[in-house]
Amino acid sequence: MPTAMEIYKLLPKKNCGECKFPTCLAFAMQLANQKVALAACPYVSPEAKVALEESGAPPIKLVTFGTADAAAKIGDETQLFRHDKAFFHPTVLGIIADDAEGIDMVKAKLETARSLSFERVGQIIRVDSVAVRHSTGTPQEFLDAVRYAAGIGLPVTIMTEDPKLMAEALALCAPGRPLLYRATPQNFDDMITVAKACAFPLVIGGTASAEELSSLTEKAKKAGVVDLVLEPSGSTANDMLEKLTTIRRAAIKKKFRPLGYPTVTVLGKSPRDEIKAALGVMKYSSMVLMEDVSREFIYPLMALRQNIFTDPQVPIQVKAGLYKVGEPTDKSPVLFTSNFSLTYFTVRADIEKSKLPVWLLVVDTDGQSVMTAFAAGKLTPESVAKAIEAEKVKEKNTRNELMIPGQVSRMSGKLNELTNMKVVVGPRESSGLPKVLKAMSV
């Protein structure tokens, strides 16, 4: 990002105040700190706008493909390591369907890709995209596969190095915005023409080095194609990691714009490719496309991605409220816990082991665990009493009894005073809940 004085030199210097700041210098200082948008100045020249947008762009460009309802976003990264800030756009995971398999198998694989989703710590994680590749199938089989893929509701990558066939396939994706795979040194000019005509993002690959790759991106940019995705070559996991790291460091650390684009890794069917997929999620593929993968592999891979792309400064939370575990009645026990996802799902799992119906009250603690929230003043008798009133616990349960975590037993007296409920101190660890709940039901 340019300095305030560098920005100021490009501003109109009218000091008109229409940007809500008294002077252009004050506005430039806000721009330099990324606290205001350049669009707030109505008089900035087109030349200055281009210069400032270019200099202020993230080191790795944001590229979007898919539809308005199902868009995949890759790139837009500013940090090399997550703990420096956070990674914002999780690696896009996609399944490749090859026209050589026949249209029935292609359809089955695409439907399988759409179904690959599950819930983990309160979040739905899924396969994000599909790709259709032209290999030994006929052009018509390929086009039929593209047409079907465009209708399943996931972002699509069209994989053919034949510019004419690519142009035909694009017409089948409207109104979607597919990713075009790929331009190589052999078909570069023709594929650039196709990408420029439709303004869709284009993968550039088929080169041996990062230097050759950067040379092709410069040519593409000069030709008017700016939404690019890089595919560095790498036959081994070590080679792949080396090239992905080189590109990432050049873009983030050195601000080298010709390599400042998201990356894609295309993998096959071997066990080594599964290792590469995990490696790509960790460092530093923006998108990983895979062939046949088992649920036993893809689910852990999605969990790995979720762990890496969770903001370390923002705990995963569940929504505060009163939850049913089983089919509780007005006589069933009432417990409470914090809204930290790990705490909630651990407590819920231990309650389910008892096979007894229970009301579980989740108190808003800003995503902190029970003891952390208690120590920070986020979990208090007053906050629990407020949650009981807000969720109308006494109207849904006539037992008039509340079990509290053993770690916060000291709040029992005050909580009894505020709620007029009998307060039962539960076990210190939720693993003790099944035994305690079964004893209460006797």
Which characteristics define this entry?
single chain, about 450 residues, alpha/beta, 3-methyladenine DNA Glycosylase II, Chain A, domain 3, TIM Barrel, Rossmann fold, 3 domains, eight-stranded parallel β-sheet, three-stranded mixed β-sheet, 17 helices, 17 strands, about 40% helix
Describe this structure in words.
This protein is α/β, with parallel strands linked by helices and 442 residues long. It has 3 domains: 53 residues, Electron transport complex subunit B, putative Fe-S cluster (3-methyladenine DNA Glycosylase II, Chain A, domain 3); 246 residues, Dihydropteroate synthase-like (TIM Barrel); 121 residues, Rossmann fold (3-Layer(aba) Sandwich). It is 40% helix and 17% strand. It is built from 17 helices and 17 strands. The strands form 5 sheets. The chain has an 8-stranded parallel β-sheet with strand order 10-9-8-7-6-3-12-11. It has a 3-stranded mixed β-sheet with strand order 13-15-14, sandwiched between helices. Helix 6 runs parallel beside helix 7 and helix 10 packs parallel to helix 11. The longest helix has 16 residues. It is globular and about 75 Å long.
